[in-house]
Amino acid sequence: MDLATLATVLQSALSTNPDERKAGEERLNEYQHVEGHLVGLLQIVVAANVDLSIRQVASIYLKNVSARDWMPREPGDRPKISEGDKSTVRENLLEAIIQAPPIIRVQLGECLKTVIHADYPEHWPGLLPAIDGNLKAQDQQRIFGALHALRILTRKYEFKDEEERMPVYLIINTTFPVLLEILKYLLLLPNPAIEISDLIKLILKIFWSSAYLEVPKLLHDAPTFTAWMACFHNLLERPVPTVGQPTDPELRKAWGWWKVKKWTLHILNRLYNRFGDPKMSKPENKAFAQMFQKQFSGKFLELYMSLLSVVREDGYLPDRVINLALQYLNTSVSKSVTYQLLKPRLDVVLFEIIFPLMCFNDTDDRLWREDPHEYVRKGYDIIEDMYSPRTAAINFISELVRKRGKENLHNFLTFIVAVFRRYDEAPVDQKPYKQKDGALLAVGALSDKLKQTEPYKSQLEHMLVQHVYPEFSSHVGHLRAKAAWVAGQYADITFTDQRNFTSALHRVVSALTDPELPVRVDSVVALRAFVEACKDLSEIRPILPQLLDEFFKLMNEVENEDLVFTLETIVDKFGEEMAPYALGLCQNLAAAFWKCLQSSETDEDDDDSGALAAVGCLRAIGTILESVSRLPNLFPQMEPTLLPIMQRMLTTDGQ
């Protein structure tokens, strides 16, 4: 099929007329494995005189055919794409990416990924024609295309073991000297455009993948490594341009120059955490670790502290940047070199950076009011924790009291007690509600340490009665939620007055009917700890029907795996006593399962909460069946409810 005919067929595949479109698609499918067809698609893609919509559909077909048929699906199968076509595509694909407009470049990038993953390392030199020693004179698109290919190559070997990574070391030895020169050149550009941030980001990603599991031997050379660190120092130190920053919060955090800052932090965190401690290093890496620790760890700590000072000044930093910066401080706590530098500034770090991040803030308040379901989802999503400044702040204070508790625990708790005191003494209209929330979060986060450490251990019951339980009746919703959570963290302590345990249990149960959704969810999760700690089930037995009723009301509102954990604990604790409720529980859990499954299948946000909750429902059903396993007369009643689930999940559909 000549190019003119191919362009016409591609245009018909775009037709709004169903018959024309079907005829075009059938013609393309008929020719998809004919020699020269794949090359023809690539020629259409790069033809500037062809309509952009036709070029775009050609790029999509090129991507799809390559992904499906570049390599035989089974050993021994006859190749569907000729070696001649493959060779031509390999030789010209990178150049096509360089010349293509962005809307087409995405499809060609996916095609390049297929080719590289299938053919590397045999054909890699042909895939990187733009990497040579004269990059300063080349245009940005050409550099971008070469870096894009190099990123795909290095990422392929990111998680490989030492033996499997041997091919990537060839790439590193060949390209890293050039990459360093490119990076140094880009950093010298005055007032760089936003497109420059994309180039720098690609170089950073290449470095990240290349040094993720092992520092390449090339970087053990002190002058070479020092030159790279000087570039990273520059990237951390230089302020992010204010001109051009989006005002929309979602666009702003994804802006190119903030991405550069994020990837620089990623790299330095990884180097220090994995390779920067001589005591934890392999013998062959000890010299490198000593070099990093002595020459660079302290300098970068200074830059991290400078970056975090923006938090004290109420300036803007993306959440992920704050999170990564605190991770470096977290690592610094356990290393004597950096801890000695950090120690004189700990009051500033703890009370002007860490504690404010732990407090309920305006963003939390807005989300609580406008979208309580999203507030709950974010609060229980482990993926969100990777980006959360609050989680990073909690991790820092937890690490500090674990590794350096004798020097810091008393000081921090004295501050928290002062927050409690100011709250108690202030008039209702002037109480620092958000700071009280942060103080409660701190106390809950340190529960494991406080439950083991005197004199705090013996004061916990008084603290709960004095500062936590009263907040169950607060008019402020987020304090009621935090009170439930903290109460759950300490449900297993030894109470000198059992009435305090009972009182807290009843408050948690009452909170299951709170008008605010986040309070109800936190209360159900806290209930699990009380059920586990309860020595006398007679305190729960009379209210068991009420608990189950409220539980399933909440299950109908939110998909949350932690809710199912509480139900499992109740079923496990009461065993055969659950028999009267077994059928109803299974029916409710089955209904919740189908709802969660449907949610996970229709969710376009790649959010796994529905799937996780569905798995939790199945696990809870299993726990119920196990608890009544000696009562086989119940099983026939459950079969109509459970058989459809088994039919779905144990057949091809369920896979």
TrEMBL record:
<keyword id="KW-0813">Transport</keyword>
<keyword id="KW-0539">Nucleus</keyword>
<dbReference type="InterPro" id="IPR011989">
    <property type="entry name" value="ARM-like"/>
</dbReference>
<dbReference type="InterPro" id="IPR016024">
    <property type="entry name" value="ARM-type_fold"/>
</dbReference>
<dbReference type="Pfam" id="PF08506">
    <property type="entry name" value="Cse1"/>
</dbReference>
<protein>
    <recommendedName>
        <fullName>Importin N-terminal domain-containing protein</fullName>
    </recommendedName>
</protein>
<keyword id="KW-0653">Protein transport</keyword>
<dbReference type="Pfam" id="PF03810">
    <property type="entry name" value="IBN_N"/>
</dbReference>
<feature type="domain" description="Importin N-terminal">
    <location>
        <begin position="24"/>
        <end position="99"/>
    </location>
</feature>
<keyword id="KW-0963">Cytoplasm</keyword>
<dbReference type="InterPro" id="IPR001494">
    <property type="entry name" value="Importin-beta_N"/>
</dbReference>
<dbReference type="InterPro" id="IPR013713">
    <property type="entry name" value="XPO2_central"/>
</dbReference>
